[in-house]
Amino acid sequence: MSRAKQPFVVMAKPVGSRCNMRCTYCYYLDKARYSAHEKQSCMSDELLERLIRQTIEAGPGPVVSFVWHGGEPTLAGMDFYQKAVDLQKKYLPRGWQAWNNLQTNGLLLNKSWCWFLKKNRFDVGISIDGSEAVHNANRRDPGGNPTYDRVRQSVKALQAAGVQPDLLCTVNSVTVTGPDEVYRSIEDLNCGWAQFIPIVVRNPDGGFSPESVTPEEYGRFLCRVFDLWTHNGLGRLDIQLFAEMARILAGGQPSLCWMAPECGRALVVEEDSSVYACDHFVDPEHRLGRLSDAGLGELADSPAQSAFGKSKKDGLTKQCRECPWYRFCGGGCLKDRFGVSDDGEPGHYYLCGGLKMLFAHGVPVLKKIMEFSRQGYKPEMIMKHLSK
Fold first, then answer.
1. What letter would DSSP give residue 284?
2. Contact between residue 345 and residue 319 where contact means Cβ atoms under 8 Å apart
């Protein structure tokens, strides 16, 4: 098998969209209707081996990334991931290594899981929506029971095993009502890394779900969290969006697909072997093929996937193309390109106004922080200067 022309990441869905939580804003639970299996089960051993072998063969190395996602990926069981680790060792060339990331809701994590993840050097992301009240408003189990305490216990269990999880917090209609409470709760978990993901779910009639956030709410929330972080969290907590802004200010390229000029290098492999263009576009229109019929490298470089990635840049509105903040957002995520620009052009990024608020508010401060850092100031001294 030939290597892909450019690096790509595989987001593997070992149990498809199956999940042991019923989040009110979930966009993935109904994706089971696209599965070739009448009832989604677990990725077969044969498919798992094909996935790992082809990912390694098609990648440039020497680090090969595997992102295990869902649904809830821990429903596949610990034995599944032991097989995955063993297969990675089987197919990795000498001197290469695998990087595994497990994104979980944390409900099934116990001491055995945590030690397995530590032993096999998995990075772990846990979804938790800030404080108890905010989290439980939207993230409940199938019986309608709150889940915050169980998720928090899983965070502590991971830390006790020596695994420092990343935290994923959604920005929804409840979250935005209490940014201080949400930020403090995230900071108090002492995980060191957090990301905030906006919830925007459109109804068939063109309206929005009750959990969706408006651009203005999103912007105000981010600005307040930015202020809390720059006055209290420097050196203790990194926030993904702010880190990406600093990376761009320093002359680097964004590592997040939605901020990059082009996307399309994060493929989804479902439990039935279907390969899709993106996690937000799991539908027949964006199905690239099946792993049983084509190689991953071939699908990553296919004309359909290339066109999908380039459409992010090709479809920009005039307002986007002329915007001074474009280099920070890349025009936003394709899934939310249903807004209207100031001059009436359709296909504009819906959350544009919120991000503009953050960039105008935060970029000048980030420049000061970076300058202080170049002068050798420690985070505590930088925060002291900023508080003045």
1. G
2. yes
> pTM for the whole thing?
0.94
For residue 261, is the peptide bond before it cis, meaning its omega torsion is within 30 degrees of 0? no
Cite the active site residues.
279
Strand partners, 310: none
pLDDT digits (tens, 9 = 90+) for 207-235: 999 999 999 999 999 999 999 999 999 99
Q: Mean pLDDT across the stretch 90-118?
A: 96
Listing DSSP states for 89-129 in one string gives: HHHSPTT-EEEEEEEE-STT--HHHHHHHHHTT-EEEEE--
- What does the buried/exposed string (b/e) look like for 14-41 if buried means 16 or more CB atoms within 10 Å of the residue's CB? bbbbbbebebbbbbbeebbebbeeeebb
Helix (H, G, I), strand (E, B) or coil at 196: strand
Separation of alpha carbons 367 and 53, rounded Å: 44
Furthest CA-CA distance within the chain: 62
State how beta strands 63-68 and 22-23 pair: unpaired
Q: How many residues does the chain have?
A: 388
Helix, strand, or coil (residue 239): strand
